[in-house]
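quick q for whoever's on today - can somebody do inverse folding on this one?? i tried earlier but teh output was garbage lol. tokens:
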């Protein structure tokens, strides 16, 4: 890919003025996060309630990595890592090297812990870390299995809801996606950008769509990777009587089941030197997995119950390298009757708070106040059984993932429910991975069709987000778009770099229309 000239990039960045009179920008006093850190940190102060800007204020923790190309900087790219509940001050540094090289050269990359999360003014419903740890130890891992575990799970989350309501009920009503979109616009102003350049992954795509609905004239460039269908998030029923959960509306259960089947098929198509859990054929490997999960229902291995193993399996499908090989190793250990070591945690980042508190209540505060879910705790077992009939373990896991909302004590004061098709100042680039275990490919198709002006880029590959599961072809298109606004041709498809359980990692090909060429796209 040929780099655009700085002049062309700059003219693109300054086109189309911001709609309306901007709100007063917050001030950011950038300082090194810690000594010798490549990241700068700052704290932004914003209103808790934008309807009452003179009332209570809250703080947002913000992080920045400066553009690395001397004299070639275009502006600021904001990044949201998804969740909800993803702390940007941690996950942007973790993922920094995954951003395309030209993007890192041309943009300051800025992220933040959304309100309610991490090092920002956070939802924390416990008096001490010890209390939080004790609460977490009470509930089943993964999802509940059997009537006794269901009672324990439901009681635990009812207790969590009570604690949260007692500690800060006002905050719980003001952590919606719309609130965070308004924060993002304040941050845009604070760094001096007339328009927003943004990359959002997973739930961050819904945040991006919400921003586009609230501030359509403020968009310079917006990349949405692994998409949440906005209408699935908001639901099509009255809040008092939703028939199903957010994640089941999104289709997370179906996509996870399909990708799990592909994992087992590919594992069984190679030998145990490449996939430790292989039984020599796809059919035998699927049967081996079924026998393992049935056995774990009756005979857990150490703390590895059926629910924990199924949850770990689904979450480990997100990152192909090294996640799939590591998952196969843990499954094989369980098959042999040995308790595996949990997946390794990423190293601490050089930021102010490398290990902020990230309890269950933070994601729940956003999801449950923003998206309708059944309020009857008894509905979840019926949904689980119906889901398991169609999608097995994935149906059980994704059903119970939303059950904390049944007793959640708050509904957001400011929710955005559309319209989603307001004309934006510039078109949006939507990326969908064909075998995504969390946000299915049809979510990207729906996002591209729902927005007024969007182009769909198809990533033929596995895992959750093209950022985490890279394609040199996707990176080339993202760089071209963010730097100069150039969209890929309609119907473009990119191949993932490498394949699961393979030592070779070919460069992702670029396909437009009927053909493709490998290796023609620079990273």
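ok took a stab at it. sequence:
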């Amino acid at each position: 890919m040929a780099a655009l000239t700085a002049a062309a990039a700059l003219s693109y960045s300054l086109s189309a003025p911001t709609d309306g009179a901007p709100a007063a920008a917050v001030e950011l006093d950038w300082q090194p996060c810690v000594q010798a850190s490549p990241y700068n940190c700052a704290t932004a102060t914003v209103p808790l309630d934008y309807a009452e800007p003179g009332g209570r204020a809250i703080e947002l923790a913000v992080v920045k990595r400066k553009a690395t190309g001397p004299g070639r900087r275009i502006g600021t790219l904001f990044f949201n890592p998804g969740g909800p509940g993803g702390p940007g001050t941690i996950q942007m540094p973790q993922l920094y090297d995954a951003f395309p090289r030209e993007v890192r050269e041309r943009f300051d990359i800025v992220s933040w812990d959304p309100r309610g999360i991490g090092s920002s003014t956070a939802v924390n419903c416990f008096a001490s870390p010890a209390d939080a740890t004790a609460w977490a130890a009470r509930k089943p891992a993964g999802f509940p299995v059997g009537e006794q575990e269901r009672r324990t799970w439901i009681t635990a989350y009812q207790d969590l809801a009570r604690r949260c309501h007692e500690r800060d009920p006002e905050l719980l009503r003001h952590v919606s996606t719309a609130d965070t979109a308004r924060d993002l616009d304040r941050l845009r102003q604070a760094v001096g950008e007339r328009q927003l350049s943004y990359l959002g992954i997973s739930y961050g795509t819904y945040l991006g769509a919400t921003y586009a609905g609230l501030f359509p004239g403020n968009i310079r460039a917006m990349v949405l990777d692994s998409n949440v269908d906005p209408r699935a998030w908001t639901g099509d029923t009255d809040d008092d009587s939703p028939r199903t959960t957010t994640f089941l509306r999104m289709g997370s259960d179906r996509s996870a089941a399909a990708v799990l089947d592909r994992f087992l098929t590919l594992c069984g198509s190679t030998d145990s030197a490449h996939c430790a859990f292989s039984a020599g054929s796809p059919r035998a490997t699927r049967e081996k997995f079924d026998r393992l999960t049935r056995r774990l229902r009756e005979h857990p291995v150490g703390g590895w119950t059926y629910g924990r193993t199924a949850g770990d399996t689904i979450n480990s499908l997100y990152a192909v390298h090294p996640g799939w090989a590591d998952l196969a190793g843990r499954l094989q250990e369980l098959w042999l009757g040995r308790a595996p070591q949990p997946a390794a945690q990423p190293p601490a980042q050089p930021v102010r708070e490398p290990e902020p508190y990230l309890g269950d209540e933070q994601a729940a505060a956003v999801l449950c106040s923003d998206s309708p879910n059944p309020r009857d705790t008894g509905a979840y077992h019926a949904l689980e059984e119906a889901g398991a009939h169609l999608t097995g373990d994935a149906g059980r896991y994704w059903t119970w993932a939303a059950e904390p909302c049944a007793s959640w004590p708050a509904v957001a004061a400011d929710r955005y429910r559309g319209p989603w098709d307001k004309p934006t100042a510039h078109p949006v680039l939507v990326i969908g991975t064909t075998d995504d275990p969390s946000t299915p490919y049809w979510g990207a198709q729906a996002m591209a069709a729902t927005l007024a002006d969007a182009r769909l880029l198809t990533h033929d590959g596995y895992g959750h987000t093209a950022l985490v599961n890279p394609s040199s072809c996707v990176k080339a298109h993202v760089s071209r778009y963010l730097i100069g606004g150039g969209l890929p041709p309609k119907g473009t498809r990119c191949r993932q770099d490498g394949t699961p359980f393979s030592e070779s990692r070919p460069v992702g090909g670029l396909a437009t229309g009927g053909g493709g060429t490998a290796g023609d796209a620079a990273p």
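fwiw Residues 1-23, 504-523 have pLDDT under 50 and may be disordered. also The first strand starts at residue 31 and ends at 32. so keep that in mind when u check it
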